Amino acid sequence: MLFTTEWLSTVFTRYTGSADESPIDEVVTDSRKKTNQALFIPITGEKFDGHDFLKQAFNNGAVAALWETGRDLPGFLPDDFPVYYVDDTLHALQRLAAVYREKVNPVVIGITGSNGKTTTKDLMSAILKPSFRTHYTKGNLNNHIGVPLTILSMPADSEVLVTEMGMNHFGEIEVLSRIAKPDYAIITNIGESHIEYLGSREGIATAKLEIMEGMKDNGWLILDGDEPLLRHLHNRNNVITCGFDTQNDVIIENVTLGQNRTQFSLSNGEPFSIPLLGRHHALNAALAATVAKRIGVAAETINKAFDSLEHAQMRFELRKGKHGASIINDAYNASPTSMKAAIEVVKQMEGFRRRLLVLGDILELGDQSESFHRSVTDSIAQPITAVFTLGEQAKVISEAVKDKNPNIISMHFTSKDSLLEVLGEYLSEDTLILFKASRMMQFEWFVEQLGNEA
Ligand SMILES: CC(=O)N[C@H]1[C@@H](OP(=O)(O)OP(=O)(O)OC[C@H]2O[C@@H](n3ccc(=O)[nH]c3=O)[C@H](O)[C@@H]2O)O[C@H](CO)[C@@H](O)[C@@H]1O[C@H](C)C(=O)N[C@@H](C)C(=O)N[C@H](CCC(=O)N[C@@H](CCC[C@@H](N)C(=O)O)C(=O)O)C(=O)O
Ligand SMILES: Nc1ncnc2c1ncn2[C@@H]1O[C@H](COP(=O)(O)OP(=O)(O)OP(=O)(O)O)[C@@H](O)[C@H]1O
Ligand SMILES: C[C@@H](N)C(=O)N[C@H](C)C(=O)O
């Protein structure tokens, strides 16, 4: 049980029906979900108005609902069905989450950053789960609806909450931070994701730093210490910097890439090993380990937890494809920073004669899109064998590679089918292929086509 209808009536005092001690086990915004003892919160979205679906929610197990004042209630409802009236259901969802977080009072770890939020959240929760009753964001439900729903699915006896916080506009992280009130706030990095709406990397840094607005007094900020835009925070009270630069509080050293793993050590020599590939993941892991150590988790426990990491799909997933070729599915999303990070890993992976990059459009880069796409070519050098691009914006990458590095095969395609056909010529056991593009490009299609064959 999360709470009772009686407790709800202390949060939302205008209600009809019976606000007795009925338990609420779940909070849902989607009437299509089969539930048990749920509170239904109808949200007005781009396509639908949740208020139109109260009957379906009721039939699917809702036992109470929020309702926007001034709207007519449908006639089918039993008289004793509790309906709580609010001015705005989205704000009410957010307020309820804040009040419930206060009631449960877990240690809260809030994670933001341009790249690596989900990965760091997964690392963080893997470390904490064995020692604490830990609740964490499912998938990447990280926005103004996802964060409240994450909090409102937290069991009442939770000791720790790990919540991812995403944004694409100013002001959004502040709202999330005020709801979640982190004891520990992590900023994984400052990249260029969503720069179209934020103007510049400086703007992105400002927006990410909004996480400080809701932090608890004496909360800790743990951040990417190598990022110049965050340098003004170094040496501040309650700020811990992590990074490769020796000026950092926590220094990441001795990074080596093995078969499907990255090894590294932190300043005092403690060795760590994560089942993820790349220096950028060593940073994500160092941020998580730093928080865990402050909470009292031993290095040995942290390393054991890293082994049991359940990593989110389509983030640099390495698998075998047709004719034994190694395929990397990094099709979840893309930014210039994460694309370059992925290419660096491909260059370092051992045991391949041919390394192919299949790169697609990176969205939401605004009027700097062309130069950001071109910047990806800074990372493209031997031992990369070939670069294939798809999408109007990605074209500049293959064109620039052709100019800068004629030894690398470089081609642009206008259809997935034609690109797939050419890829067919390269498939063998000593070939490695990276697929990376923004979500809209749906590059997982290639991975499905090149899946293993008997
Ligand atoms: C509002 C909502 O939750 N919508 C989800 C719903 O959409 P649907 O197709 O139903 O249309 P509507 O949104 O118009 O519906 C309005 C409500 O009506 C309900 N409803 C509809 C029909 C019906 O028969 N019964 C109903 O009750 C409906 O449930 C709505 O409540 O379903 C879709 C398919 O499952 C969902 O995709 C859609 O989810 C939206 C997108 C959402 O915001 N979900 C959050 C829970 C969430 O956290 N989503 C994350 C977002 C991750 C992300 O992109 N993060 C970015 C930063 C984002 C910044 C922020 N400003 C933003 O723009 O979101 C990052 O870079 O990290 C996710 O999807 O993974
Ligand atoms: N610190 C980092 N620097 C650069 N790239 C990174 C970093 N961490 C993860 N990535 C890459 O970014 C991509 C997305 O990773 P992840 O899902 O963890 O990020 P995210 O911030 O949660 O993304 P989203 O905002 O879309 O939810 C993956 O390709 C991953 O390899
Ligand atoms: C899916 C969303 N969180 C995201 O990362 N969007 C960018 C633009 C992408 O898909 O690359």
Number of helices: 15
Structural class by SSE content:
alpha/beta
Shape: globular
Q: Would you identify the CATH architecture of the largest domain? A: 3-Layer(aba) Sandwich
Q: What is the class of the largest domain in the CATH system?
A: Alpha Beta
Distance between the termini: 48 Å
Major β-sheet, in short?
9 strands, mixed
Using DSSP, what is the number of strands?
A: 22
- What is the residue-mean pLDDT, rounded to a whole number? 96
CATH superfamily of the largest domain: Mur-like, catalytic domain
- Beta content: 15-25%
The poorly predicted ranges are none
Spatial ordering of strands, largest sheet? 9-10-8-11-12-13-14-15-16
CATH topology of the largest domain: UDP-N-acetylmuramoyl-L-alanine:D-glutamate ligase
Bound molecules: ligand LIQMQMZN, adenosine-5'-triphosphate, ligand LVM2DEV6
Output the radius of gyration.
24 Å
